[in-house]
Here is the input.
Amino acid sequence: MQSVKANFTIYFVLFSFCIYITYLGNKETGMSYLLICALFFSACTIFNKSCFFKTEVLFYLFLCLLWCFSLISNQDSFRVSTILFTSLYVISYIAYMKCLALNKFSSENYIFFIRSIIIAYFIVLLVQQVCVLIDLPILNVSNYQVDTPWKLNSLSVEPSHASRIIGILMISHLFITEKMRGKKFTLMTYLRTDSVLTVALLWILLTNGSGTAFLILSLFIFRFLSIRNSVVFLLLIIIGAISVSGHESQAFERFFEFFKSALTMDKQQMIIADHSASVRVVPFLIAFDKLSLFSLNGFIGNGVDFTKGFMSLEFPGVKDDFTGGGMLSFALEYGWPLCLLFLYLTFKKMVILNEPVTIILWFIMVMLSGINTSLLWFSMFIFSTTKYFYNNSYD
Here is the structure.
């Protein structure tokens, strides 16, 4: 009975992180009510698990410091709901990892789950594209803009989220499949292992209109060491993107221009090249300029929502209550020691040291994200599961 509950918890949590249903979510914030229910359910099961893992005590230490620093640094800005939400993510994660430790959820189950989610994304995106083509109401549409009709979200909050979710799931699928078969794949060998999955992956990333998709594809290619295969496939991506997107190939152009400007670290040029992509990078640079390591506020933080006071003023085109800045904003608000502890924990649980692509994805999904964003915790849950099966141990 315990194994059934554990497996249900794992499926329920992973499904809720991967799938956003518009009727079960907040259109303004993009928060999924289904995910909140799953997190509460997972958190409640923590009392039924006796397993203990090495870093668990550090997660409890993180929670204690989070509450203490928040109360000490700025009581006027203290907001219980924000701290409770972070605590819910952390406790749910601990309970989830305890479920995995029971060894009742197999790698075969995990592979089946990933495959099902990717194909579901493909089917929904295809239906959405047909709806746009024949001018019908779009199924499960979210964050849709009429001036970019082919930029579709499928089963996520927005197109860029779909690209990251699918990319991370595919990389996780690759690692576990290699581990199960006991060998490393070349790019073309892996793509031939499951033609349906390959078609679904490429269709989603090449036609959903998100510039983020090209970054994900680049990282996917980077994973394979064969330079010849990488170059050929990259050319196919470019040709395919232009062919299937037609006049919507601006997605690739935006990605290329933003990539060039990012190399210069010029904030204004990044904003001009692609405002949507710059939202994930420029606030990080702004927050870095504000960070103070040797002051009391630098140690215990400046209080909740400190970054709201300046971020919208220095980054044009965002709402007045915009925070941004990823983990550096977290360091500004809660102190750099707490931030370093969280970064250590996420690095420890997510990164596979002999797989460099996981380090890059850790930086993108954790360092550039806010602590209460579902994408950060989605990547944390997925890569922790991947690492668990990859190492075949519970550390």
In short: The two ends are 25 Å apart (CA to CA). The chain has a mean pLDDT of 81. Residues 110-391 form one domain.
